[in-house]
Amino acid sequence: MNDKTEELEEISIEEALQMEVVVSQALIDILVAKGIITESELTDRIEEIKLEQGIEF
Fold it and tell me: Of 18, 29, 31, 48, which residue is most buried, by most CB within 10 angstroms?
């Protein structure tokens, strides 16, 4: 058994959210660039999810 313990780095909620935004945008950019989805399909699905979850912006 390994006796080493991993030290976890603490980050703020804001930093975690910023990273989520960056990762999401990168994935969206790649999917659109490869023609897997269109921006219109993406925005339509976002609206569907917002309605399903009762989210208003």
Answer: 31
